Amino acid sequence: MTQWHTGNIVRIEDASPTTKRFWLEVEGLERFDFKAGQFITMDLPIGERRNQRWRSYSIASAPPSVSSVGVTLSHADTMNTIELCIVHLDDGLASGWLFNEAKIGTAIKFKGPDGTFTLPETIENELVLICTGTGVAPFRSMILEVFNQKIPHRGIHLIFGTRTAEGILYQQELEELAQKMPGFRYSVALSREVREGCHHGYVHDIYLKDYAKKRPDVTFYLCGWTKMVDEAVANLIVKMGYERGQVKYELYG
Ligand SMILES: Cc1cc2nc3c(=O)[nH]c(=O)nc-3n(C[C@H](O)[C@H](O)[C@H](O)COP(=O)(O)OP(=O)(O)OC[C@H]3O[C@@H](n4cnc5c(N)ncnc54)[C@H](O)[C@@H]3O)c2cc1C
Description:
The strands form 2 sheets. This protein has a 6-stranded antiparallel sheet. A 6-stranded parallel sheet has the order 10-9-8-7-11-12, sandwiched between helices. It is 23% helix and 32% strand. The chain is globular, with a radius of gyration of 18 Å. By secondary structure, the chain is of the alpha/beta class. It folds into 2 domains: 4-114, Elongation Factor Tu (Ef-tu), domain 3; 126-251, Nucleotide-binding domain of ferredoxin-NADP reductase (FNR) module (Rossmann fold). Flavin-adenine dinucleotide binds at residues 39, 55-58, 84-87, 89, 92-96, 134, 137, 225, 250, 252-253.
C-alpha cells in the first residue's frame, strides 16, 4: 500500500544559479529508509487534479546508516532527513513553487520511496553513471552509499554534463571522493565553456571514446531528461553494440 509521509523543509541551499538543494525531515519517523537511486513523489499545491500536482524527485543523499562506531553516515544531517537537488525550469509549475513559495518550515506531503533504478545486490560489473544536471542526484546517493558502506565494486565512472562550470553540481565533494575512493573516476563535460580539467563537449563524447571497445563487464546507468537519455541509449545499444541489459535508465521527463 502506498505510504504517504509529511516532509518538513529544514534547509535550502543554492547549488548553482538555477538549482537548489532542499532537505526534508520526515515527520514521525526516526529514520527514513530507502535504497540509493530511489525517488519520492511530492503532492504540491499547484493544481486541482492529482496528475497536475504530483512530481517525482530522486533522493540525492545516501540512505541512513550507522557505522560500527555509531556515527550517522546519511550525509543528510539526520537519519530521517533526505536531500533533493532540484532545477528551476522556465515556467515549471512545481519547480517554480519550490523556488518561490517553499521555505524553511514548509510541510510537503510525499509518497515513497519508489523505483528500481538502484545498485545491484552485488556489484559485478564496472558501473558507468552518465547524467546531465540534476540527473546526478541518484548517482550521488549511490556513490556515497558505496563509499559509506565500503561496498566492493569493480570501478565506478561518473560522467556529468552541463553547459558551463557554474552548473557543475557537488563538484568539490565528488572531486574529493575521486581522490579518496579507490576505483572511482569523475569526468565533467561542459558543452559551452572551455575549462581546464573538463571535457569541452557532451557527455556522449566521453563514453563513446572510453568504452568504444565493447565489454561484457560494464553496466551503464543513465539519468536525466529525454534528449540526453534517448541519445545515449541509441549510442550504446545501436552504435556501440552493448546489450539492452547493460543499459539502465531513469527518465526525468
Ligand atoms: C523518477 C523521477 C525523478 C526525478 N528527479 C528529479 C530530480 O532529482 N531533480 C529535478 O530537478 N527533477 C527531477 N525530476 C523531474 C521532476 O519530476 C519535474 O518533472 C520537474 O521538476 C519539472 O516540473 P515542473 O512542474 O517544474 O515543470 P512542468 O510545469 O511540469 O513543465 C515542465 C515542462 O518543461 C519541459 N522541460 C522543460 N525544461 C526542461 C529541461 N531543462 N529540460 C527538460 N525539459 C524540460 C518538460 O518536458 C515539461 O514539458 C524527476 C522526474 C522523475 C520522473
